[in-house]
Amino acid sequence: MSIYLHDTLRGEKIEFEPLKAGEVTMYLCGPTVYNYAHIGNARPAVIFDLLARLLRRRYKLTFARNITDVDDKINQASIETGKPIGEITERFIKAYNEDMAALGVLPPDIEPRATQHVDEMIEMIVALIEKGYAYEAEGHVLFDVAADPGYGKLSKRDIREMIAGARVEVAPYKKAPQDFVLWKPSTPELPGWESPWGRGRPGWHIECSAMSAAHLGRTIDIHAGGQDLVFPHHENELAQSTCVHDGEPFARFWVHNGFLSIDSTKMSKSLGNVLLVHDLIKTTRGEVIRLALLSAHYRQPLDWSDETLDDAHRKLDRLYGAVRGIDIDDAVRSSARPPATFVEALEDDLNTPRALAGMFDRARALNKTEDPAERQKLAAELLAAGDLVGLMQSDPEEWFSGSDEGDLDAAEIESLLTQREQARSSGDYAAADEIRDNLADRGITIEDGSSGTRWRRS
Ligand code: AMP
Ligand code: ZN
Question: Which of 43, 237, 267 has most ligand 1 atoms within 8 Å of its beta carbon, as the pocket-test mutant?
């Protein structure tokens, strides 16, 4: 069997084949770092972490997830808090990575930051102007949508909708309302870089076009993100990248996750229903949240409620319960492969509901079997399935004994201690203290001694 993925551009599920045999490139639009990630932001992080794990079984994957660390929302946060921009972005990059690690999200291969790629963005904008796809006006550079006959093909919008979408941005210097910003001027207090159009800063869309070309090449295999990014962000990335590269395809597959709502309502600050991962992991184990996020098919909407977490917790209890007390021989464990039907479900456009149902079937079969060798084999295969999806990563006894909600497992604690050590050795004592305080909040006391740092549950 092959891997099948739904491609937004072609509007159907298609057999996946990479451009270069054996190698895959994937780019996921990452966070804008001005506050903590909410549970909706965690959905693409977890879904595409799963896709990355699946691809790595067959291919040499290069997975880039960027950090948007220059943005008007960050500037606004700096004005509101009086804190320097660099302090805000560093703090929330660290928080994002810690929060996602708690959900079992493995680090991407490359985590490019926008502020480190401004030269590439300027080069791309210069080339777009030279090729007739962009124009300068009053210190701004705009993409000339009318110059790109392919514009609109990803989001399948007609021009009236685009104009409506652009309305907030209508500005006198634009030739047409749907033209979007590649570069804009900065005032002296705002972050800015010297450019052929004066001191300024990039628009959001050009960041991703420049970073993906710099790290993954002109044509990438998979471009991923949440559904809300299809228009305008991905439509604009597609326009910039194909025009600057003389029509060479930008992404061979566009994969988008559906939206997460809370109690059937859109998450929003004004409604006060924004659920931050940072808060949730204080009371709920990361694996419970991960399973809850994987329980719906990624392209479907996911409605989140207390019941979602209770249900995920019960499911994990069932899985851990099935393997509890089975002493699996090391050789059996290391040679076990996830069941073929389980892998096939995942390779069929990430059908996690079907794959998880397969895990519960396996747990039921395990509970019914009495033959010790068969029990070992079934348990080892169930754990191998767990390894692939990033679940069942705790010791079953630990799961049940310390299963007070919010308990960190040993690996999570060790990973936080490593991050604290890195913060200390780079002189960032505030970050190191924050990690120690965080651990203390979650019942973990640490002691620094001559032979390193030790921890215990208090
Ligand atoms: P942002 O920082 O707003 O650019 O969002 C980061 C990622 O989270 C993007 O891929 C968004 O599409 C995704 N995202 C934001 N809100 C939700 C949500 N409620 N449900 C699912 N994905 C979301
Ligand atoms: Zn992007």
Answer: 43
Ligand at minimal distance from the CA of 268 is 1
Q: For residue range 295-327, list pLDDT tens digits in order.
A: 999 999 999 998 999 999 999 999 999 999 999
Ligand 1 binding residues, C-beta < 6 A: 29, 31-32, 40-41, 43-44, 225-226, 228-229, 257, 259-260, 267
Query: DSSP assignment of 51-114, as one string?
Result: HHHHHHHHSEEEEEE-BB---HHHHHHHHHH---HHHHHHHHHHHHHHHHHHTTPPPPSB--BG
Query: If you average pLDDT over each of 190-199, 265-274, 406-415, which comes out highest?
Result: 190-199
Say if CB 260 and CB 301 are below 8 A apart. Answer: yes
Paired strand residues for 457: 444
Domains along the chain? 4-257 (3.40.50.620), 262-399 (1.20.120.640), 402-457 (no CATH)
126-157 CB burial, b ≥16 within 10 A, e <16: bbbbeeebbbbeeebbbbbbebbeebbebbeb
Identify whether the C-beta of residue 362 lies closer than 8 Å to the C-beta of residue 378: yes
* Calpha distance 422→426 (Å, rounded): 6
- Looking up tokens 């007739």, which residue turns up? 132
Q: Kindly indicate the confidence band of residue 6, based on its pLDDT and cuts at 50, 70 and 90.
A: very high
**Overall pTM surpassing 0.85 (yes/no):** yes
Both tokens of 330, joined, read: 């090391």
Distance CA 405, CA 399 (A): 10
Q: Which residues contact 15 (CB under 8 A, 6 or more apart)?
A: 2, 3, 4
**pLDDT at 411 exceeding the cut of 80:** no
* Cβ neighbours, 10 Å, residue 451: 6
